[in-house]
From TrEMBL:
Coiled coil: none annotated. This is CDC20/Fizzy WD40 domain-containing protein. InterPro entries: Cdc20/Fizzy (IPR033010), WD40/YVTN_repeat-like_dom_sf (IPR015943), WD40_CDC20-Fz (IPR056150), WD40_repeat_CS (IPR019775), WD40_repeat_dom_sf (IPR036322), WD40_rpt (IPR001680). WD repeats lie at residues 90-131, 173-214, 303-336. It comes from Manihot esculenta (Cassava). One of its GO terms (cellular component) is anaphase-promoting complex. Keywords: Cell cycle, Cell division, Mitosis, Repeat, WD repeat. One of its GO terms (biological process) is cell division.
Length: 360
């Protein structure tokens, strides 16, 4: 059946799987969450270190957390006790975590700070491996491509860092006119997309120091960026409150494909690896989560429950579960995508026995 003939599913479950995160950071230009490429559902979150996060968890193993200067790892399982918190680092009162990013393989974690530094941590040993400089303002975006780590800053620059090299960075990318708030490498590691508070979306290749493609159609900051894992060169981007649109681009032909007005600030985008669908999370004014079918952009589900903008989003390694974090100081688990083996099964609406909200 052609997907354009399938009726959109609209469900509004309130997930019973929820993690309370006191004082979660609410700055939309920062990236405080990520997923590790291991067999754990992993996530980094912000919490006030004077308070203890909730231990009422119903989920798979899960690694989150961080406070203004502290950084911790959660291990959450269905066993009792349901959670374990391991402190990873303390940056002190004069610095704070602004972004994090797991390496594509292994247990190394990059941490961008408000003082413009990028730290590399071995999370398995809770040990800092290296500190790299180069930026002079906060580092709000990080993206890995094999051994190359890209960092974007409020100082309007992007630095390319080869962690095998002695130098702190090997090249500097110029072009943004404001803070870099989004960075994402394509799945083949050939193209880097950057979004900024100057409302522009740039695309760079592996060797360029100036953008090879420039897109200026958005009318608000571009933090949400996602490359399709299904089609080479297919890029999605989302704009802020004054824009509200998800736009699609073909970087191979340098063409603007389509635009969808979502009605709300677009905070995050992630593409399913299992099916040709994507998720967007939103802020003002609806604070919703939407599952879209591509390319028709029909809504498969609208997930509600967060009461403030949904600034953080991560996809589990198996490609089935997303975790969302919001200014309402909660993380919520949603089972939104099928497994690769069940792509062709009929859709169902209901809740799983593990307590996660599900739309299939």
């Amino acid at each position: 059946m052609d997907d354009s003939t399938i009726s959109p599913l609209t469900v509004q479950p309130v997930p019973s799987s929820q993690l309370n995160v006191p004082a979660i950071m609410q700055r939309p230009s920062l990236n405080l969450d990520t997923v590790t490429p291991s067999d754990h559902v992993s996530r980094l979150i912000n919490s006030n270190h004077y308070k203890s996060p909730s231990r009422t968890i119903y989920s798979d193993r899960f690694i989150p957390s961080r406070s203004n200067s502290n950084f911790a790892l959660f291990n959450i399982s269905s066993s009792s006790p349901p959670s374990k918190v391991t402190k990873l680092c303390d940056l002190g009162i004069d610095d704070s975590v602004c972004s994090v990013g797991w390496a594509q393989r292994g247990t190394h974690l990059a941490v961008g700070t408000s003082n413009g530094k990028v730290q590399i941590w071995d999370a398995s040993r809770c040990r800092r491996v290296r500190t790299m400089e180069g930026h002079h303002l906060r580092v709000g975006a990080l993206a890995w491509s094999s051994s190359v780590l890209s960092s974007g800053s409020r100082d309007k620059s992007i630095l390319q860092r080869d962690i095998r090299a002695q130098e702190d960075f090997v090249s500097k990318l110029s072009g943004p006119k404001s803070e870099v708030c989004g960075l994402k490498w394509s799945y083949d590691n050939r193209e880097l997309a950057s979004g900024g508070n100057d409302n522009r979306l740039f695309v760079w290749n592996q060797h360029s120091t100036q953008p090879v493609l420039k897109y200026c159609e958005h009318t608000a900051a571009v933090k949400a960026i996602a490359w399709s894992p299904h089609l080479h060169g297919l890029l999605a981007s989302g704009g802020g409150t004054a824009d509200r649109c998800v736009r699609f681009w073909n970087t191979t032909t340098n063409s603007h494909l389509s635009c969808m007005d979502t009605g709300s600030q677009v905070c995050n985008l992630v593409w399913s690896r299992n099916v040709n669908e994507l998720v967007s999370t939103h802020g003002y004014s609806q604070n919703q989560i939407i599952v879209w079918r591509y390319p028709t952009m029909s809504k498969l589900a609208t997930l509600t429950g967060h009461t403030y903008r949904v600034l953080y989003l991560a996809l589990s390694p198996d490609g089935q579960t997303i975790v969302t974090g919001a200014g309402d100081e909660t993380l919520r688990f949603w089972n939104v995508f099928p497994s690769p083996k069940s792509q062709n099964t009929d859709s169902e609406i209901g809740a799983s026995s593990l307590g996660r909200s599900t739309i299939r």
